């Protein structure tokens, strides 16, 4: 394992797309989309700890990390509520940000 990945709290060598956005608290977090979306290469969502490290919060976001692999993703406030939402084909569309690092199922 690459030492820089350990230092950041990120251990994933299968990524295909990364979306860096401030999803919750003023620090840049990121969604890491993987091509297969299965096994050890599932899609992941990381929260910035504010100290140069990240924590994998995939299990608590409402996203199905093992849904169809993500080839691409984008962040934006698609519903104009002030929170950055996530658009990815993983699971089917726009994942609405509820303002608490959780996502509501796709609306598209």
Short description:
The protein is mainly β.
Describe the protein in words:
It is built from 1 helix and 8 strands, in the order αββββββββ. The strands form 2 sheets. The chain has a 4-stranded antiparallel β-sheet with strand order 1-2-3-4, with no helix packed on it. A 4-stranded antiparallel β-sheet has the order 5-6-7-8, with no helix packed on it. A hairpin with a 5-residue loop joins β3 (44-48) and β4 (54-56). With 108 residues, the chain is mainly beta. The radius of gyration is 13 Å and the shape is globular. Helix content is 6%, strand content 33%.
Characteristics:
108 residues, mainly beta, 33% strand, globular
Percent range for helical residues?
A: under 10%
What letter string, H or E per element, gives the SSE order? HEEEEEEEE
Instruction: Count up the helices.
Output: 1
The description of the largest β-sheet is:
4 strands, antiparallel
Shape: globular
Assembly type of the chains comes to single chain
């Amino acid at each position: 394992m690459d030492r820089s990945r350990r230092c950041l709290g990120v251990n994933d060598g299968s990524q295909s797309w990364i979306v860096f956005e401030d999803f919750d608290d003023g620090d840049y977090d990121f969604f890491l989309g993987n091509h297969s979306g299965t096994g050890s290469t599932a899609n992941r969502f990381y929260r910035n700890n504010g100290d140069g490290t990240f924590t994998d919060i995939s299990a608590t976001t409402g996203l199905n990390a093992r849904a169809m692999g993500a080839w691409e993703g984008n962040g934006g406030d698609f519903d104009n509520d002030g929170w950055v939402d996530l658009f990815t084909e993983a699971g089917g569309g726009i994942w609405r940000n509820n303002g608490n690092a959780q996502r509501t199922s796709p609306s598209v």
